[in-house]
Amino acid sequence: MMVDHIVLGAGSAGCVLANRLSAGGASVAVIEAGGPDRHPYIHIPAGYARLLDHKRLTWGYRTAPDAATGGRALDYPRGRVWGGSSSINGLGHVRGDPSDYDLWAQKGCTGWSWADLLPYFQRHESFAEGGEGRGTAGPQPVSHLAERPALLDGFAAAAEAIGLPVNADMNGPRREGFATFQQTRRGARRVSAARAYLVPALRRPQVTLLDHALALRLVIEQGRCTGVLIRRGGEERLIRARAGVVLSAGAIGSPQLLLLSGIGPAEELAALGIAPVLDAPGIGRNLQDHYITRLTYRLASHRYSANRRITWPRLGWEVLRWATRGTGVLTWSPGMMSLFARTEAGLEAPDIQVNGGPISWAEGRIGEPEQEPGCTLGVWQCRPQSRGSVTLASARPEDSPIIAPRFLTAPADAAAVLRGIALVRRWMAAPPLAGIVAGEVRPGPAIQDEAELLDFARRTGGTVYHPCGTVRMGSDPEAPLDARLRLRGIEGLRVVDASVFPDIPICNINATVLSVAEKAADMILEDQRAA
Length: 531
Known about the structure:
Layout: E1 2-8, H1 12-23, E2 28-31, H2 40-43, H3 98-106, H4 114-124, E3 125-127, E4 140-144, H5 151-161, E5 177-180, E6 182-183, E7 185-186, E8 189-190, H6 193-201, E9 207-210, E10 213-221, E11 224-232, E12 235-247, H7 250-260, E13 263-264, H8 266-271, E14 278-279, E15 285-287, E16 291-299, H9 314-325, E17 337-341, E18 352-357, E19 374-381, E20 388-391, E21 402-404, H10 411-428, E22 437-442, H11 450-460, E23 462-463, E24 493-495, H12 510-530
Parallel strand pairs: 1-2, 1-12, 2-9, 3-4, 12-24, 13-14
Antiparallel strand pairs: 4-6, 5-17, 7-8, 10-11, 11-12, 15-20, 16-19, 16-22, 16-23, 17-18, 18-19, 20-21
Helix pairs in contact: 1-6, 1-12, 4-12, 10-11
């Protein structure tokens, strides 16, 4: 099979590329390891809680145990289905701070400043309300909450009481402060990148989707990537590309496939029996992610909490509300609001983000609600300094790679966790929440010592599902990609997904991935026309 472009991965970036490249007249083959997004939980927003460890719809990754996080192996969900992680995530649509992207440009990523990227944020989104800098006609629907829980009014008032603004649009010109979440949702249903971009693209004859297909390795001939070897239905098959191959398998899958193809640290590859094709030490390095510590608060009444509403028999009424009105708790996501704040003097942008909503979970783990009314607030550092890696466990494509985020290994990150917890406690103690918030459950008021609080964070925290940076772009010699997302040393090969980020932005990252892919599609088509 021969096409103009091969797109490896039908996640957020791959879906955008399939759509935009084919709209530009190119023939595209999309290779996806997972299958169609037919599972009903994908399309019910609150279904995320049942998808994070789904055996068929995720890769089932776990991190390497690390002493810095209590010696635990953490679940590390990544979508293995049409839409990738946009089909299993918490639906959050959040832009980074403008300074995030300006920092990218300052680090040598020419063309990736906020001014450069803003048109692509506007291009991909369809936010009916509009507003300064917002897009209203893009493929990706973006909506305010279908139901605003009563608790959020108290949260907003409490934010103002501690000196933080309340923003009507969390993706508007001001990032700092309190705002309700925006979701990748239309009406009652999630709209993943597959629904927004891929399904429309599949109506074009020049788009071929090969799902349930495992990419085994890239084919490199005389220094050029000319195709990919896949396994589908028990048979191996070679797919070739005239113009080029775009790797969009995500921050874990993209470095893994490069390494399997002999592109990476030569000594490490040779030790696994993989013949090095290109010695590229930066492949799989620079893994970044947000580390969340969840605090639980008891609420004075079930009026403020959804704990009762998401258990039977009341859940039956919620199902009916969702199906008939498109409202109720089944339209909720894990983050119903965000608080961005600066907790140190002299910062140009927020260093702490708090997400949460009026549900509390038994043992603090998403899944089983507490019987008493409660809420959960997850706090994380916006720009962590800890850096991890993705390396191969073996030369077998079927084997999961070794994922080592190295959370909280940088001293500054541990200090930020403590500042974040202090911020949440001050917020929840503000006068507007008197009579609503009855007290702290986890870690609990008895724990005040900083060492004990940090120990709590290390023992109970986890990923916010924002891995990025593992095949970064940059101008320095160790950056695997140039600013046009081309892999240095191999012609005809680009990487387009969260792995290209030089640094993690101050946000949930899906909206940034969509924007990066929109810009990449333009660059690919420009190069194709110039060839």
